[in-house]
Amino acid sequence: MATELRHSRILLRPWRTGDAAACAAMTADPEVMRYFPSVLSPADNALLVRRIDEHFNEHGYGLWVLEIPGELEFAGFVGLLRVAFEAHFTPAVEIGWRLVRPAWGKGYATEAAQAVLRHAFNVLGMKEVVSFTTAGNKRSQAVMQRLGMYTRAEENFEHPRLPAGHPLCVHVLYRLRREQWLLQAAYDGFEQPLPLRP
Ligand SMILES: CC(C)(COP(=O)(O)OP(=O)(O)OC[C@H]1O[C@@H](n2cnc3c(N)ncnc32)[C@H](O)[C@@H]1OP(=O)(O)O)[C@@H](O)C(=O)NCCC(=O)NCCS
């Protein structure tokens, strides 16, 4: 059974019946999928949900369902993924997010991602978490910046799963190391770091 993560306004929970259909509606929304190669068909969405489930089974963490209690039972997903392709920064664990449009502009993605980072660094003992997106996806990069992640132009890369020259091909990479997060967390008073398990 996957862990639940909570922060003041958000709950990150395991997937349950009904979430796949809500996710299909989200991944069929052209605005949500603007920075992906295409919207997802119901079959491709089912494959995505199955892969998310397999990732949890294999690693014990993954893309949790974001719920806004009392407001939105399915607000999207936020979580951690092992990067499944080779690049100059792999092997690596990525933090990612995709929210239904009614959940945009309320700080939910950043709040959920903070809870995920706390879990990654404090509970799972990760040393670094990365994030990446296509260069034009400024909303996603703004989340990375709010989390205190940092980028360097020389780490931009061409996504190996997209054809060279594809308009979404060039990606920016953001990184956050555990020690930086600890300093930030102490400064923000967000969460006292717990001792790491050996
Ligand atoms: C990327 C994505 C998750 C960002 O969502 P977002 O709503 O912009 O990000 P947040 O949830 O952190 O919200 C921040 C905004 O909420 C506002 N906000 C409102 N109330 C707030 C509150 N109580 N606390 C914090 N921020 C609040 C902030 O001012 C900010 O507004 P701004 O964008 O006008 O500056 C969303 O656009 C999305 O799902 N996109 C499609 C999928 C996608 O591209 N995923 C990434 C692929 S790599």
How is this structure best summarized?
The protein is of the alpha+beta class and 198 residues long. 32% of the residues lie in helices and 22% in strands.
Q: SSE layout and pairings?
A:
Elements: E1 5-6, E2 11-13, H1 19-27, H2 42-59, E3 63-67, E4 76-82, E5 93-99, H3 108-123, E6 128-134, H4 138-146, E7 150-151, E8 157-158, E9 170-177, H5 178-188
Antiparallel strand pairs: 1-2, 2-3, 3-4, 4-5, 6-9, 7-9, 8-9
Helix pairs in contact: 1-2
Bound molecules: coenzyme A.
Number of helices: 5
Q: Which small molecules are bound?
A: coenzyme A
List unreliable stretches of 5+ residues. Answer: 193-198
CATH structural architecture:
3-Layer(aba) Sandwich
Helix content: 25-40%
Integer-rounded radius of gyration: 16 Å
- Strand line-up of the largest beta sheet: 1-2-3-4-5
**CATH homologous superfamily label:** Gcn5-related N-acetyltransferase (GNAT)
Q: Please identify the top-level CATH class.
A: Alpha Beta
Shape: globular
What proportion of the residues form beta strands (DSSP E)?
Answer: 15-25%
| N-C termini distance | 23 Å
Give an account of the 3D structure.
- With 198 residues, the chain is an alpha+beta fold.
- The chain has one domain (5-188): Aminopeptidase.
- 32% of the residues lie in helices and 22% in strands.
- It contains 5 helices and 9 strands.
- It has helices spanning 19-27, 42-59, 108-123, 138-146, 178-188, and strands spanning 5-6, 11-13, 63-67, 76-82, 93-99, 128-134, 150-151, 157-158, 170-177.
- Strands 1-2-3-4-5 form a 5-stranded antiparallel β-sheet, sandwiched between helices. Strands 6, 7, 8 and 9 form a 4-stranded antiparallel β-sheet that branches.
- β1 and β2 form a beta hairpin.
- α1 packs across α2 (42-59).
- The radius of gyration is 16 Å and the shape is globular.
- It starts with a strand and ends in a 10-residue tail after the last helix.
- 27% of the residues are buried.
- Residues 193-198 have low confidence and may be disordered.
- Residues 32, 35, 96-99, 104-110, 133, 137, 139-140, 143 line the site of coenzyme A.
